Amino acid sequence: MPPLAAVPDLDRELDELYGLPLEEFTKARNDLASRLRKAHQSEAAAEVLSLRKPTLVVWAANRLARTEPQLVSALVEAGGRLREVQQRALAGEEPASQVDDAATAERDAVRAVLVVARTELDRRATPSFLDRLTQTLRAAAVEPESALLLLRGRLTEELEAVGFGPLEAVARPQTGPSEDELREAARERVAALRAEARRLDAEARAAERDAEERRRQAEAAAAELAEAERDLDARR
């Protein structure tokens, strides 16, 4: 019996896979791997089967790339522009005002995407979730390979933009950073730490509320059990 025809376009299949509703990902991934095995593409099947189900943050970023391609393209363009300007600024080829302008444009682009994300995700768009989504979008926008994946809606994992972000990959002049650069780096780092602290505080508060609710449920169950035992004793 001749081998089955190969899957004609694996890239297209993967594009469709990452565009599915989150709850359909695992089954569709397994089905694709099965078809690849039947088509005698065992290596591709193993790679597909190893793909992890995206987190809600990754899924949301990929969905936004499909539903709002212009906004996501504008974000990637702004992130790339910011990276370039910062690189030139560190080499002494751009004034600080250009860096400020590029950073403002990048923040505006992120904000525009987040406005849509809040509307589309409704109750799932918690402060913690939006912070993680912001980190992933900003990090992807300034890293060329991740930017391409984001534009295609094919991100596979959450990313993190910490401190200077794109500047961390830039070689500094041999004379060392200026005072202005150090102050700006410190401000960026403080902002990142504050955002992380807010996220952790929100998660801690949510955990406390959940624990309190479980305690009340346990107390109610204990009271109901005691009443039932008293009723049983009275009937003996």
Notes on the structure:
With 236 residues, this protein is mainly alpha-helical. Among the domains are: 10-49, no CATH class; 56-174, no CATH class. It has helices at 10-18, 25-38, 42-49, 56-67, 69-90, 96-121, 127-142, 144-152, 179-235. It is flat.
Q: What is the count of DSSP helices, taking H or I runs of 4+ residues?
A: 9
Instruction: State the secondary-structure class.
Output: mainly alpha
- The low-confidence runs, each spanning 5 or more residues with pLDDT under 50, are 163-176
% residues in beta strands = under 5%
Give the helix level as a range of percent: over 70%
Order of helices and strands: HHHHHHHHH
Molecular shape? flat
The count of β-strands is 0
What is the averaged pLDDT score? 81
Instruction: Give the termini distance in whole angstroms.
Output: 76 Å
Question: Major β-sheet, in short?
Answer: none
Whole-number radius of gyration? 25 Å
List keywords for this structure.
236 residues
